[in-house]
Amino acid sequence: DMRLLEQRFRYARACAERHAWRALVQQQLAQPLDTAGLRQACERIEATLREEGDRLDAFFAAIVRANEPSVSPSGPPVELDAIRQH
Questions:
Q1: In the chain, helix, strand, coil percent, each to 5?
Q2: pTM, rounded to two decimals
Q3: How far is residue 84 from each of residues 21, 50, 62, measured CA to CA in Å?
């Protein structure tokens, strides 16, 4: 069911966000950052989360394409191997 798969991708994105922000809080508790350092850390986290979100979106799009009916018999897309390895 594609809806269930889509929910799993949303869950993966939410888990990545939660882990990233929790790590920042733990770092802040262990060794507080100044305002500039905290701002830089937040920007790095946001950039990383954008990249991971883009990767998850691409993975989901590849799965959707792989599940579309096709006329010609072909093997699974190479993209699916990258998803499996991730």
A1: 80, 0, 20
A2: 0.81
A3: 26, 21, 12
Residue 78 has pLDDT above 80, yes or no: no
pLDDT for the residue numbered 86: 78
Span 60-86, mean pLDDT? 78
Give the least confident one: 2-6, 10-14, 45-49, 78-82. Answer: 78-82
DSSP state of 31: S
Distance CA 74, CA 58 (A): 21
Cα distances from 67 to residues 8, 25, 32, 76, in angstroms, run 17, 40, 48, 10
Contact call for residues 83 and 63 (beta carbons, < 8 A): yes
Burial of 45 (0-12, 13-18, 19+ CB in 10 A): middle
